[in-house]
Amino acid sequence: VIREFILVGLRNFRTYFYLKSCLEYGWPCHKVIIYGKDKLNISNYLNSQFILDGFSISIDMEIEQLLKNFEVEYYVENNFNKLFDSINKEKCRNILFSGAGKVSHEFVTNFQVIHAHPGRLPEYKGSTTFYYSLLKEQMLYCSTFIMNEKLDSGEILNEVQVPLAECLNIPIDDILDPLVRAKCVNELMIPSPQKNNERAGNKNHKIYYKIHPVLRKILLNKLFNHMS
Amino acid sequence: MSSEYKYSDPIEQLNPKLYSKPDISSENFIESYRQSRLASVTALKLNNNTPLDSSHIYILSGDEIEKSIKSFEINRNDYLDEKENTIQKLISLSMSLKLSLECVMDFQHLSTFLKVNDTLLSFNIKKHDTLNAAIIAQLVEFELRLLGKLQ
Predict the structure, then answer these.
(1) What is the ipTM for the molecules in this complex?
(2) Which of A133, A208, A212 is best to mutate for the B interface (most B CBs within 10 A)?
(3) Which of chain A's residues have a Cβ under 8 Å away from the Cβ of B29?
(4) pTM of the entire structure?
């Protein structure tokens, strides 16, 4: 059980969905640290609600307005690892990570850095894994794990799986990716007593690399043209 | 918005972020990919009556395929120099992936197969010797058949 955590992230849809979940589902967020200079443009999705297998998030305010509900520290630094000295002063040692890039040895040895990876682990490590699993198995997976220095290799905490049929008409990169991550973290933060997180171990795994655009488009056509 | 398939363009191939955030919003994206590949096959086969003999191509083992995929995906720039040795490496990887895909559908293999063929087709086709041209045409025709079944 995660009693409290610091949310550390960039201004992206994943951070937005995590913040909304803190408010709407009661995640025990102690503090928020926002780093980097990027802005989040939500105009394409403003006043939209997205539902994934019973888990819903609405986009109804700008991220800066949303952040007013939290104790927040801002850093313009784009490299998360350079924030170590600042974050190391915190008593709370759990970090929920919604940033990008590799996390340093200092962080993974001094904190429990929790990351949601949109793929089943250890089978689907690497990049764009949700495209691969949707194409291969018609399933979307997400796993939370405690990061270590190896790629997508830390202790696995929980997993969700959602059939492709539940993902139809949800914009895949902007929304579906952060939505499944928020759903997975939600099941970690607020575990359902009926939920059985045990899963059959599968030793077959490999690293995935950025999927080719033609395969991306074939999957998008499956998600959006299902009624035509 | 351009509906042209740009991934086998020699200039675009030099962009290290070519495959990172692709613009696939055009409804005609798959069709422009198909037309681009068909045009390449036609060009490769032009005046080329070489009997297809791929017996000289080194076929990679399973482990070698995985290592070559990693090398190609991480160090793609090392495969853009259009030297004979590089072309042979790419043809060997593409042919090995084709043989693997004939046995079992592996989407990582298919993704890399498409990228390797993008790179091969970005080279000046007239510079390929006729046997290489015939083999690349065969690889691309297989790719088109496989993609056709997926849609």
Answers:
(1) 0.94
(2) A212
(3) 213-214, 217
(4) 0.86
